[in-house]
Amino acid sequence: MGSVLSRAQIALQALAQLRNTYSTLHKRLQLSPGLPVANPTQPLWTYPPVHLPSEDQSGDLPDYADVVVIGSGITGTSVVYNLLSRESGLKIVMLEARGVCSGATGRNGGHINPPLYHDYEELKDKHGERVAKVMVAFRRAHLIEVQRIAEEEGILKESQVRETEHLDVFECPKTFAESKAKLEAWRAAMPVESSTFVAYERDEAIKLPAGEHELMFGGGWAQACDDGLPEIGIADDAAVNHTSQSYLAGALPQYFGLENWGAEAVVEDGGEAGEGSVKWGAGRTKAQWSGILGISADLLPWVGRVPAKLSGRTPPTSLVRPSPAQEHGSRKSGEGGGSSALAHMVLDREEEIREWFPDIMRVTEKRWKEAQFDNLIAKFM
Predict the structure, then answer these.
(1) Alpha-carbon dihedral angle through residues 125, 126, 129, 134, given to the nearest 10 degrees
(2) 3-class DSSP state for residue 312?
(3) Long-range contacts for 126-129 (Cβ within 8 Å, ≥24 apart)?
(4) Do the beta carbons of residue 29 and residue 377 sit within 8 Å?
């Protein structure tokens, strides 16, 4: 009897803890992220800084603008790039709280690595096969587009944009089996797009080539306290999570084996000191910083004109000028691609994007009503 009561008590305690976690996350996700802090950590990618010419950074705004863009990251920059590529006479104002690319874009993981096989089946089950294929193709196109623009603008060498290989490493046999099944399903549906994807078994994976290389290593968020849940809904980039830091700095030597771990890295960017007061480490971990990843309630980007019911504003109409509107483009799964579509929408050229733009990303009242925080929280709990 005592054993039964103990189990029931443990179950009730677990349920209470789960309820408290859910309540905390739900409240936090409904809060405004606030304004960017003045003392953020310094990402490796933003040094040395790129000094861009600016007409005015004093805060004095022009009396008129055709388009006002909030944020100078990949989303805002892509909108402006695509607008001016098609309508060079537009008057555009870009607003930025801190420095150029100082937000989520400058705090990225340094790669464009969209989920492809990972959620193809889920997309197909929810939205149909055609939409799933369009979405995967849209995600794959980002790297090609970024490389094209870098070459076209003559910044390929400076930006170091290049195509590399990526590994998804699985430690759990069950998760590995599930992922292999997802990969096979995607291969069957999109054989051309998936032709370079390979699943290695244990015996194949341990045969690694010798040599010393710099590695980009992630996954620290999931290793943080309480599976990273305390980090959800936090936009403060002034601090780093020490649990994640410890994992990222110490896991690779353990995975490879201390006897196989290479020599200390040689600093090739002018010594340990970067520009200003920032210093990069000369050892195995060169730099760590706090990142920001924006995820919407339904895990998809939101692109398009914001309905008046959502914005709370009814724009005036005019026979002379186009009606003003609030447009929105989010980065998650977009890598700037959604902003290209947004630019076409602003210019009333939507017929040019019908073939490649996933319509499930469009902002609508119906989608807004169906997007629930509960679904997002369930993904992390």
Answers:
(1) -140
(2) coil
(3) 127/360, 129/189
(4) yes
pLDDT in tens, 345-377: 999 999 999 999 999 999 999 999 998 877 777
Q: pLDDT (tens digit, 9 = 90+) per residue, 242-294? A: 888 888 878 877 777 777 665 554 444 444 444 455 555 555 677 888 888 87
Which residue carries 């607003």 as its tokens? Answer: 95
Query: How large is the greatest C-alpha to C-alpha distance in the chain, in angstroms?
Result: 81
By C-alpha distance, which of 322, 319, 310, 304 is closest to 361? 304
Q: Where are the domains of the chain?
A: 62-104+297-314+323-380, 110-199
- Which pLDDT band holds residue 193 (cuts at 50, 70, 90)? very high
151 Cβ neighbours under 8 A, 6+ residues apart: none
Which own/partner pairs from 40-43 qualify as long-range (CB within 8 Å, at least 24 positions apart)? 40/98, 40/102, 40/237, 40/238, 40/290, 41/237, 41/238, 41/239, 41/240, 41/289, 41/290, 42/278, 42/287, 42/289, 43/106, 43/107, 43/108, 43/287, 43/289, 43/291
Asked if residue 280 lies in contact with residue 274, where contact means CB atoms within 8 angstroms, the answer is yes
Confidence (pLDDT) at 236: 84
Helix (H), strand (E) counts: the chain:
12, 4
Cα gap 196→208, rounded to integer Å: 19
Q: Tell me how far CA of residue 260 lies from CA of 41, 69, 183, 245, in angstroms.
A: 32, 49, 31, 22
Integer Cα distance of 236 and 206 in angstroms: 39
pLDDT higher than 90, residue 46: no
Report residue 101 as tokens: 């690319």
Crossing angle of helices 2-29/373-380, nearest 10°?
130
